[in-house]
């Protein structure tokens, strides 16, 4: 690799044309020195700014702007202040030389110097100027590198903090997901036995009242478990394409009743909202929980504003999600409450974290919203300052499909029929309670503790109309594998899954696999009987 030879530009300023010829002859055999001549000293500054010479040779005595004036002008301008200036004069006076250096000259030569001295001094000042430029460029490059390093270090620290937070949230999620799963099984045993007691004590108003009160406790526990699973992103979502505008409009009356007369509710919906693919019941729960949090922050008196709009790169001036690109529907819930300081804002999504007094909150509202939004491939952001209220922003990905029709209103409880149902459940107490419930509804039942035992029953010739199986099964045969073999043996067999946690078996990425039917635990006798009748009606 060859390097281009350096060429130094030398600007000579003199009112005598002969100076160009004389200096030109002295520098003629130096290929690295290129001479530029300027006759009019008034143009010295403008020429130097454009040419950026390595050295300026300027005559001292000239009409108009003399050598002192040229030197002063060059030193006063930032673009030329560092260019070496050599004054040429016929005067060998110490006073003149002192003034020359005072004006900023780098050197002083008495006309006419020896050729070798002139060349040596020009090369010295030119190379010194080049070295200065290289030094300045190096310092500038170093400063930029330091700034870039500082920026990268800050970004790395932020990324590490985000990773640490994500790992902490994931660890908490795994713990809460496991606890919620076991809790749902316990609730199912309690709920099932309450249902049996209710059926056995018909006509006993005192007993029925006690059972109803206990059922309310079970329902609260079920909601708590659902919130835990939602935060842990383990809650199976039955996602469908919905119109968010219709869902939010339908919630208006519910919100006004839940929040009370002292809280003003405003719903602002942009025209032409895109459809989104989410679990509508879970989205309603999120909006309701955010609204209740807002009510508490406003001490039941203030303004709650729910807005929805389309955001994306194709919409000028629209807001963007905190991460990712693409089209989204933004749903924001804003209040005029007390707001949150930075330290509270940082922990707001953690489960069980709450600033409310003991007994006035579970600390799961925002964490449930966080889990649901992440499980729905969306983004969630919090904006809050003390005294300025809080805004929760939910970005849900746009879906191109048409909105599904709203589900029909649930009908009254169905008592069942004479069909045979195979119950597959590894938890003995849950299985026994479920079998007793189905028998009380009039069904014939058989049962198995795992998928292998259930398959053996069918291989032995047991005829069943519907399989009601837990999703999570011990043993070598999974519930899904058992169902596949059972359907080959009994074409038209209906299957209803149940679980408090089904991720990785019939739900992937938090979404139920298409074509599968799931009844989440804990379930009531009415919900169980309705679902069974719906499936058996398909045969």
Automatic annotation (TrEMBL):
The keyword Coiled coil does not apply. Signal peptide: none annotated. The modification 4-aspartylphosphate is found at residues 59, 470. Its EC number is 2.7.13.3. Residues 9-126, 420-536 form the Response regulatory domain. It catalyses: ATP + protein L-histidine = ADP + protein N-phospho-L-histidine. SMART domains: HATPase_c (SM00387), REC (SM00448). Gene3D superfamilies: 1.10.287.130, 3.40.50.2300, Histidine kinase-like ATPase, C-terminal domain (3.30.565.10). The keyword Phosphoprotein applies. Keywords: Phosphoprotein. PANTHER family: HISTIDINE KINASE, SENSOR HISTIDINE KINASE. This is histidine kinase. It comes from Noviherbaspirillum aridicola.
